[in-house]
């Protein structure tokens, strides 16, 4: 398969995904990689498995201790449950087998978890330095020892006061971990997976009293060099400083030329390190399109960092908007909601939805999405770059049809009334969900140009990450309300864009999430904590 133009590649990822991978691509299930990275021959620091059953009522006092970090990481990205369920089968076939898997609190496309989590920690109980979170063994692997405050600050363009932080998290993508199944379509999933993990990390950080700031822009080569990552295998997608102060201070930039930092210069400040890790796959295929996208997205100078100003949009006709009843933010135990979160398929069951229930779901998803990041600069953005559209059926006092949610006005903007379930069902690439059993069908949408005019090719993966962050907030809110949600990419974006009328706002649907009541699946589940 010849390499295509990168703009064509991104367009096909969104609107014609079957054309981004070879027709003869077959997944070698017997040579699958592990869903977690295993480092070898490094100092290891075990973390406590005596994890609290609730995250409510936590007391936060000063710099966290190692025990706190262990609990934090368990809820962010740990292996939390071992489940066994009977695989569904055609009645004409042999009896179905037993599916056994380790569950985490965050979903992942195909359960493959292409993301990895690293930390820079400055705690008294272990050496200051860079660590990898070994989810399989719930421990930290020491990658590089030392104080890297100045190096990290420079890699972020000297825009955050990292000296006031007890550490930072790094969310990376390991290309092969889901390329082996999805081929080039893995690139779209990798951004969404990273975003879902970031969303979980930010929500858990709030419960631990940690303030945070997400940096999508940093000197890639310098950060990967710091962690000792091979850029042919893996690359960091986001850097998230963490502090126990109320907020992480934004630094004023002085003379732009004097403050300019280049990745190559910064890399020379540290000797390279390389570590041995186990993948399990015996044969790893090439993924040139993913490497080309990664290379085209690289930032090698802090002069390339940008802020995105709020877009000027036409004000919708508020007379047509359907105001939703005022509702308070949901109050719930995040630990319980994470344990109960479920992704239904055939388990969706039809039940009517109350207007206040829909209002609470929408308000919580969008209100919890607000976060500090480098694209907005010192001021937190009031209008998010991704939004929610939805097709609703059987909701009290809401005519069946397609709507756009206006978070600022807490209202639904009708875009196409009527029943679109058959059209959406026909647009699904797999018939794994009966949409006639689903009262709420959401699409997270964003700008059609993927912010390429401001952020270049990096804009695509940033948009996918923000979409993943909003998806996860929607899933948590649904779980808190006793419902389930199933994120899907197997939908026809052209069709959904047509009945939502997204073109008038220069938006497009990025991911599809059916949400509704469900019956519990028969399965055995055992906790992996004590």
Automatic annotation (TrEMBL):
Q: Which one of the record's GO molecular function terms can you name?
A: oxidoreductase activity
Nitroreductase domain location, by residue? 104-239
Q: Which InterPro entries match?
A: Bacteriocin_Proc_Enz, Nitroreductase, Nitroreductase-like, SagB-type_dehydrogenase
Query: A Pfam family this protein belongs to?
Result: Nitroreductase
Protein name, entry field: SagB family peptide dehydrogenase
Q: Which organism is it from?
A: Paenibacillus mangrovi
């Amino acid at each position: 398969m010849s390499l295509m133009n990168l703009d064509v590649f991104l367009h096909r990822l969104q609107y014609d995904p079957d054309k981004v991978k070879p027709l003869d691509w077959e997944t070698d299930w017997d040579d699958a990689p592990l869903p977690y990275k295993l480092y070898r021959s490094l100092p290891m620091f075990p973390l406590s498995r005596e994890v609290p059953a609730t995250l409510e009522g936590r007391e936060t006092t000063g710099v966290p201790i190692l025990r706190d970090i262990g609990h934090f990481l368990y809820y962010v990205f740990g292996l939390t449950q071992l489940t066994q369920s009977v695989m569904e089968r055609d009645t004409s076939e042999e009896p179905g087998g037993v599916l056994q898997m380790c569950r985490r609190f965050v979903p992942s496309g195909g359960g493959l978890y292409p993301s990895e989590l690293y930390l820079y920690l400055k705690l008294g109980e272990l050496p200051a330095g860079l660590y990898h979170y070994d989810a399989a063994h719930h421990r930290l692997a020491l990658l590089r020892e030392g104080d890297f405050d100045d190096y990290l600050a420079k890699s972020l363009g000297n825009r955050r006061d990292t000296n006031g932080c007890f550490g930072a998290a790094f969310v990376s993508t390991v290309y092969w971990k889901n390329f082996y199944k999805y081929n080039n379509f893995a690139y779209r999933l990798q951004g969404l997976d990273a975003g879902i993990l970031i969303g979980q990390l930010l929500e858990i950080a709030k419960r631990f009293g940690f303030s945070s700031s997400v940096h999508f822009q940093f000197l890639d080569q310098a950060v990967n060099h710091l962690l000792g990552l091979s850029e042919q295998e893996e690359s960091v997608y986001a850097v998230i400083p963490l502090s126990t102060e109320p907020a992480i201070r934004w630094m004023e930039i002085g003379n732009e030329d004097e403050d300019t930092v280049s990745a190559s210069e910064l890399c020379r400040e540290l000797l390279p390190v390389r570590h041995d890790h186990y993948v399990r796959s015996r044969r790893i295929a090439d993924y040139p399109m993913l490497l080309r996208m990664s290379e085209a997205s690289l930032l090698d100078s802090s002069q390339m960092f940008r802020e995105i100003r709020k877009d000027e949009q036409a004000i919708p006709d508020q007379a047509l908007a359907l105001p939703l009843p005022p509702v308070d933010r949901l109050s719930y135990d995040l630990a319980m909601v994470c344990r109960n979160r479920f992704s239904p398929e055939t388990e969706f069951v039809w039940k009517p939805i109350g207007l206040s229930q829909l209002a609470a779901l929408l308000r919580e998803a969008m209100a919890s999405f607000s976060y500090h990041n480098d694209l907005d600069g010192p001021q937190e953005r009031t209008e998010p770059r991704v939004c929610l559209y939805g097709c609703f059926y059987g909701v009290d006092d809401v005519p069946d049809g397609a709507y756009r949610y206006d978070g600022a006005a807490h209202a639904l903007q009708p875009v196409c009334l009527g029943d679109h379930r058959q059209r959406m069902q026909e647009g699904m690439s797999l018939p794994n969900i009966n949409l006639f059993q689903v009262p709420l069908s959401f699409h997270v949408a964003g700008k059609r140009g993927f912010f390429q005019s401001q952020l270049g090719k990096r804009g695509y993966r940033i948009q996918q990450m923000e979409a993943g962050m909003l998806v996860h907030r929607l899933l948590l809110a649904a779980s808190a309300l006793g419902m389930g949600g199933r994120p899907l990419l197997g939908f026809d974006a052209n069709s959904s864009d047509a009945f939502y009328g997204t073109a008038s706002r220069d938006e497009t649907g990025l991911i599809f999430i059916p949400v509704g009541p469900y019956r519990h699946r028969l399965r055995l589940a055992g906790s992996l904590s004590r």
